[in-house]
Amino acid sequence: VVITGAGQCYWLHLYYQQIDGGLSGSVKAAETDTSVVITGLIAGATFSISVSADSSTLSSSRSRGPDITIQYEKVAYPVKNFEVISVSETSLTFSWSQPSTGAHLTTGYNLTCVPLLTGIPSPQSLPLLAPTLTSATLSGLFSGVPYNCSISTISDRGSSLPASLCITTNESGI
């Protein structure tokens, strides 16, 4: 966010203050920024936001905007890098990385494999996996069957969109 005038180049400072006197700070927008992200705010807290335009020689007074209440994150974030690391006749081993955002909100993972052939019994899944896990093995699968396997992150605010992949178990005797 850049304001130019009278041969001067200005940039904006955004100041935030938690209404109850807690967290406060400021963020300076670079000359080429068109938006600014303030991180580390507390969900459920209300903050006052003010802005000033500054240059190397001048500084405006702060202009206060409306108070803003930070909303809670509404859903869980998906895992990253979901992949198969081992394939056998009757089992698949998967690995993944925890979500890069909101990992502290994760209460577990749901891992399910659905057979892609008719006549094969229902999906196989594991009980809710611990939030610290980054790999798991799903056993009891049928040999030579293609499966659509997916993993969803679970939090107290819901379930993420699944990360999915298709993989076929090894044929018997291979």
From TrEMBL:
- What InterPro entries does its record include? ECM_Regulatory_Proteins (IPR050991), FN3_dom (IPR003961), FN3_sf (IPR036116), Ig-like_fold (IPR013783)
Q: Which keywords does this Swiss-Prot/TrEMBL entry list?
A: Repeat
Q: In this entry, which stretches build a coiled coil?
A: none
Matching Pfam families: fn3 (PF00041)
Q: Which CDD domains match?
A: FN3
Domain Fibronectin type-III per the UniProt entry, residue ranges: 78-172
**SMART domains hit by this protein:** FN3
Q: What is this protein called?
A: Fibronectin
Q: Which organism is it from?
A: Geodia barretti (Barrett's horny sponge)
